[in-house]
């Protein structure tokens, strides 16, 4: 069983940056695709990005394209989400999840991910 732990959230002003980390234990990241999601109060969980276990495209939701970048460090068994030019609408609890297929081959939907971390709060406010 792979366990995921998110970290790096906090309070930042609009236009600022944060780097989130998703660290895995119990299994290697090369077995799974890792996706980032976010959830604001009263809203459903929204897919943000997906990084496949294979070499190939990295997918992002339209609202973060050009601002967010996800990457992987096999040595630390960690996936990162670098968030730049943050906006108040980015405020949410951010989660990482792993699938059982290893591919990011369509829309980033929560039903494809069965293992989750506990989330880290990101608040963008002046």
Largest sheet: 7 strands, mixed
**Secondary-structure element series:** EEEEEEEEEEE
What radius of gyration results from the CA coordinates?
Answer: 13 Å
What's the total helix number? 0
> Which secondary-structure class do the elements indicate?
mainly beta
- Say what oligomer this is: single chain
Mean pLDDT: 94
Which stretches are poorly predicted, pLDDT < 50 over at least 5 residues? none
Shape: globular
Number of strands: 11
Distance between the termini: 40 Å
User: How much of the polypeptide forms β-strand, as a percent range?
Assistant: over 45%
Helix content range: under 10%
Task: Describe this protein's structure.
This protein has 126 residues and is mostly beta strands. 0% of the residues lie in helices and 47% in strands. It is built from no helices and eleven strands. Strands 2, 4, 5, 6, 9, 10 and 11 form a seven-stranded mixed sheet that branches. The protein has a four-stranded antiparallel sheet with strand order 1-3-8-7, with no helix packed on it. Strand 7 and strand 8 form a beta hairpin. The radius of gyration is 13 Å and the shape is globular. The relative contact order is 0.33. The mean pLDDT is 94.
